[in-house]
Every structure is written in structure tokens, then in C-alpha cells.
């Protein structure tokens, strides 16, 4: 349950403004979560076109809530008014927390964190939404790695209650406390986990999703039957192949590959079909086709 105001943990830092870098599926969702909870938000993308696309995600998602009668047009306007979107990273200067949600590549993430170092205040918290990369390897791109933490949301971010907070061996305790407090203010339930590839949820989930792809690849059952078995037999909200389409096959592959390289457990060796589908541009919902086809 969402804690009441008096239960909300106190923060050492008074954070009112949150920056989000990368406005893809996850980044835009995180912006929405933060703005819904009353924070001022600065959303960053790399160029004007990507900024526009990111803003579009946000408008569509909140627009859907309005058309379903879950939000008034007035509230949508207020929410959108809290969000500034730009391709200028210097707009992050007065953010007390910055959440990075750029593509799952260590070189790109380290580059972003290196740049952030010169923009934000020394005590600002720098968080990464990485699904599987080492938070420690990202943190060492900065001058103050003790203020870097993993803050991992689940897709769709406005819906899923969980956030994984990843503490490295060098993350400062007050940083962890403040991120926990922010999670509560965002209406999320945090779990704390060490810096091991895949953290808790993806380490367990992706092994299962990978087995589903192998089953489909080997023509053991149809995609509909594999998905129906898990929805109707196990009470899951969606089947594994539909879920892979939601997560994005490229993201799923990147997570599996990182976990596999760390532990060499063949459960995580990415199914060859995943690679073929990615090469063919079948990334799931975001490209209109994955295991299924979308409008
Ligand atoms: N943004 C905002 N809200 C959304 C949304 C989105 N993208 N998608 C759905 N919703 C909201 C709907 O508005 C609706 O809200 P109300 O109940 O207030 O009306 C609610 O979610 C339910 O949506 P629907 O009725 O359209 O559909 P549903 O009941 O079938 O639920 C689902 C859709 C939420 C996606 C559900 O099927 C689900 O939870 N699936 C499992 C998703 C999952 O496992 N995610 C984790 C993936 S792993 C990951 O993300 C980590 C990683 O690093 C790879």
C-alpha cells in the first residue's frame, strides 16, 4: 500500500526536481510516474526529434488515462505543466536526483554519467535504470561514485509497483535512504539488492522467457498455446512471448547476454531466434512486430 504522509520517510536532501535522461518507453514512463507524484521533471533526449517523440509518449499515455476516465483533462494539463523536455543537459543543473534511462550499453551510460558530473551539484543523486549492467561500472565514470545508485523500474512504469534499488559496495547509506524515500513518494515498493547482473526480477524472469523462445523456436507448441498455458494455467497477466514483445526483444537480449556472460549458466544463453528477430527489426510492440503483430 502507498504509505500515508506521516509514514513517508524523511529525506536528507529535499528533492523537488527530478531529471530523466532518455525518453524511450522506460524514460517516458518514469517521467510520468514522477510528474504524477508532484515532482517537477526535466526530461532529456539527444535531439529535437527525439524530444518530440518522448513528449508524444507522455501525452499519449496521459491522454489514454483521460479517455478512460482515470484522469481529468485539468489534471493532465497540470501534470504536463510540471514536465520540461529538452535536448540541453545543462537543464539538469538544479535536479536533486537524475535518473538515466538511455539504451543498455555501458559505453553510452558511462558517457552520460561523465557529462552529468560537470552539470549537477556534488550531492545530487545519480541513478541508473539499467536492467542488467553493473551499476559499479557506471558509477566509476563519475568523480563521486558513492552518490550513484541503481533505480530500476518495470514496464509499464506507471503501472508496476516494484522498483529495485541497487546498492554497490561504494553507495553511501544516505543516498540509499533518500532513494528509498523517493520511491515511497512515487507510490512504489522498493526492494534493495546488490550489484549482480539482472538483480532479482530479471535474473529470474529472463531465464523463463528465454526457455519460452526455445520452446517456440523448436516448434514444440504455437505462440498462442505457450502464452495461454502461462496465463490460464499459472495466473500470470500475460504469456512469455507477449511479455517479450512488451519488454522489447533488444532489451531482453541485452539483459540475457549480460547475465549469461557473468555466470555462464546456459539458462541465460540467449535463444538464437531472439538474435534473428532483432536483426530483422522485429523488436516487439515498439516496432509494430515481434512474436505478434501490432497496429
Ligand atoms: N502506461 C500507463 N498505464 C498503462 C500502460 C502504460 N503503458 N499500460 C497499461 N496501463 C494501465 C491501464 O491504463 C490500466 O489502468 P486502470 O486499471 O487504472 O484503467 C491498467 O494499466 C491495466 O491495463 P489494461 O486494462 O489495458 O491491460 P491489462 O489489464 O491487460 O494490463 C499490463 C496490462 C499492465 C501490461 C499487464 O498485462 C501486466 O502487468 N503484464 C506484465 C508486465 C510485466 O511483467 N512487466 C515487467 C517486465 S520486465 C521489466 O520491465 C524489467 C526489465 O528491465 C526488462
Automatic annotation (TrEMBL):
Assigned keywords, A-Z: Oxidoreductase
GO biological process: fatty acid beta-oxidation
Domain 3-hydroxyacyl-CoA dehydrogenase C-terminal, first and last residues per copy: 198-294
Organism listed in the record: Mobilicoccus pelagius NBRC 104925
UniProt record similarity statement: Belongs to the 3-hydroxyacyl-CoA dehydrogenase family.
Residues in 3-hydroxyacyl-CoA dehydrogenase NAD binding domain copies: 17-195
GO molecular function: 3-hydroxybutyryl-CoA dehydrogenase activity; NAD+ binding
Portion of the parent chain present: 4 to 298 of 604
Name listed for the protein in its UniProt record: Putative 3-hydroxyacyl-CoA dehydrogenase
